[in-house]
Amino acid sequence: MIIELAEAKKNLQKKGFLDVEVDVKLDLFAEIDRLKKEKNAIILAHYYQEPDIQDVADYIGDSLGLSQQAAKTDADIIVFAGVHFMAETAKILSPQKKVLLPDLKAGCSLADSAPPELFKKFRDKYPDHIVISYINCSAGIKALSDIICTSSNAEKIIESVPKDQPIIFAPDRNLGSYLIKKTGRDMVLWNGACMVHEIFSLEKITKLKVRHPEAKIIAHPECEANVLAIADFIGSTTGLLKFTQRDDAQEYIVVTETGILHQMQKENPAKTFIPAPPNNACACNDCPHMKLNTLEKLYLCMEYEEPEITMEEGLRIAAKKPIDRMLEISAQAGL
Ligand code: 13P
Ligand code: SF4
What we know:
The protein is α/β, with parallel strands linked by helices and 335 residues long. The protein has helices spanning 2-10, 12-15, 28-39, 51-56, 63-72, 84-93, 109-112, 116-124, 139-143, 154-159, 173-183, 195-198, 202-211, 225-228, 237-246, 260-267, 295-304, 313-332, and strands at 41-46, 59-61, 77-81, 98-100, 130-134, 147-149, 167-170, 188-189, 216-219, 233-234, 251-255, 272-275.
């Protein structure tokens, strides 16, 4: 076991997690619960995580809620069941805490679509613009930004900027285009996108709607404009979940990553939720990055306290400023 662990530690960066055999008879739910108490650890999970992970989490939320929790928790260890930029944001906000991510390779195609060196050159072409970046970006991009936003506070963040102040919005062109329409602000957009939200098929969703005429279409603003155009409601993951709780429809076509259906179904047991199909042979749309995390990897990272998120202090301080600004504006707006 000691040799196996030493070998797994050597391969951690390559594999993304400690590849140690877990006894199949182990009750992972009970073990994770024990580790939470023993280590004063909190599990923060995004709605796109697999149902088992959501069920052991202390908090499940969208990107804004998760960063608010990371900033205020008094736990010693934050176990981030989400993707890398989310765990990185938690570390930026709570540097004195140990931040663990079940699989370091849980990245994000949207964050990857904006490499900081290229983005800096792009930004330098617009010296009089301020940069509002969607939280789905690396610490390097955050450090080049003036304010961070999420899909639940983006409108408020944009409205907080004086009307005559030109804006660059990065990295999601779909969310950016949606916000231009919503706010009437003519922003310069970085050309990035999320692979999960871009792949939904308008044709298949339209056919689904014909078969389920009473179903409401609810969509995440990372989707393309043609999909958003047919949506009855558009919002962040928390926004979509809350809508299904207050709305009186009985059926919904859900146009975002399928993980959110777990909470929707739990909160509304009598309602029907249909995952919108992507433009391939699959019937639903999973984020391959989010789904790299498993209950086993969650247990392993808590047991061995690795992989851990670390960051150079200069980068952390530069990346924190625009996140703090976002949290201030969100608090003022009551979000
Ligand atoms: P929200 O949960 O903030 O809506 O973000 C969705 C998303 O794509 C996270 O990766
Ligand atoms: Fe990134 Fe899209 Fe996956 Fe969210 S769903 S983590 S934006 S690739």
